[in-house]
Amino acid sequence: MPKSLEKTRKKIAKKKGNITALHENSRDSQRLRRAQMRDDKLIRVASARRKNDQPLGTLFKEVYSTRTDHVLVARAAYFQEAIRSNDSLPLDLDAIQALISAFVHQNDEEFNTLKKERRPGRPASTREDLLRMKIAMDEKEHENGFYLMDADNVTLLDRWEGAWGYLSTLKWVRISSAGVVQDSKFPPNGK
Predict the structure, then answer these.
(1) Which pLDDT tens digit goes with each residue over 127-156?
(2) Among 17, 33, 151, 168, which residue's Cβ finds the most Cβ atoms within 10 Å?
């Protein structure tokens, strides 16, 4: 829990006495506002870091939407488009690996743009931190086993219309960067 505001309030109270009688734009009230904003920012950043330790999907719900299940829906939609562009034919493992790599690095351009726009010596923006964590998390997941639908489910995936409930009818697998395919279940439990 950040204590910047408490410390600032204590210093001002020591100097002035009662801090409820401050002028709106006085130096002391500005110090209190800055301390409050600093504490709020620390809480936001700590919250984003804590989300890094949660199971698949919960970290980047801000990137996609306000709901966790939209992460998997967005992932399914991405691979559905890839299969439809392949005339609804099953993809071989090399093509799937290339799609996974493209999916993992789809935010690299935005991340690099944010990084270049930042002035030297300035801390990264919250959006840049979130993108960095998302890319790192997806790369780690790709190494250990990327969670996606089985490539043999082409007809079922082609019929999918974006509903969360329909995803449980599909067979799900984890494909590692080494090419190892393991069966999995839906929804994932983060392992």
Answers:
(1) 898 889 888 888 888 888 888 888 777 788
(2) 151
Q: Closest Cα to residue 151, out of 76, 72, 61?
A: 76
> Residue 138: which of 102, 112, 111 has the closest Cα?
102
Per cent of the chain over pLDDT 90 is 9
Number of other CB atoms surrounding residue 157 within 10 Å: 24
Does a cis peptide bond (omega within 30 degrees of 0) precede residue 187? yes
- Give the number of other CB atoms < 10 A from CB of residue 174: 17
**Interacting residues of 114 by C-beta distance below 8 A, sequence separation 6+:** 124, 125, 127, 128, 131
Tens-digit pLDDT profile for residues 31-58:
889 999 999 998 888 887 776 555 444 4
Measured CA to CA, the distance from residue 176 to residue 187 in angstroms comes to 18
More confident residue, 19 or 109: 109
Backbone angles phi, psi at 89, to 5 degrees: -105, 150
The values of phi and psi at residue 181, to 5°, are -110, 125
